[in-house]
Amino acid sequence: MPVIVASDLDRTLIYSAAALALTMPDARAPRLLCVEVHESKPLSYMTETAAQLLTDLGDEAVFVPTTTRTRKQYQRINLPGPPPTYAICANGGHLLVDGVSDRDWHARVLARLADECAPLSEVQDHLLRTADPVWVRKHRVAEDLFAYLVVERELLREEWVKELGEWAENRGWTVSLQGRKIYAVPGPLTKSAAMREVARRTGADLTLAAGDSLLDADLLLAADRSWRPGHGELADAEWTAPAIRALPERGVLAGERILREFLQTVRSPR
Predict the structure, then answer these.
(1) What are the GO MF terms of this UniProt record (predicted)?
(2) CA distance 14 to 45
(3) Which of 20, 122, 180, 254 is at 20 to 30 A from 114, Cα to Cα?
(4) 36 beta partners
């Protein structure tokens, strides 16, 4: 029976230069592989060791990249290993099969959002009215499913984020602060639901997951075994659960450790 490995990407398996956390002496820093280029500039990296681990994992399990990125943002990532048959984008809003969004899945997601939470337009209007132009750099809507702001983190009022979270919760939405981005995402829009759909289609009898942010919590809880790195929203909150292992590594070395844990678990007798 196949094993599904559903992993978040940014700050879990791949890292921007600012998120690498290379705290060791320069001469001992790991060799890095660039896995994303945007506007002719290198953007995301993993260690060369992690790249080999991911290649091996892709040969032995159903690896499912699982991201809040839009489809366009995801498709500029060039991960090592065999091309994944399935990928989860827009926090579960799109399930890609061989690179193409599954129309039936997307229609089911839209129907659930319409039934269970406030419309995107209401949330977008609230963000535009209440966010301070002093610290907001960009307002964005992703795939007509959720909204996010790009902010100057050092100027951001933490009280505003808390107030936004409370306002959003009352309307069926979730707020997540990740680096310079504040996400407002409908509660029913989840990575876990899409992972369960992949498990149903493949007949998988074991699901593994990893992630670092609040938007990954449902995914980690839904999998049979999960890991989180020593950085990110979940680590900051010391969040855990019985089937979730909190790793001490931070930055790009955490991505390497997560892949090693995945591969070891896939190869272990069940």
Answers:
(1) hydrolase activity
(2) 5
(3) 180
(4) 44, 77
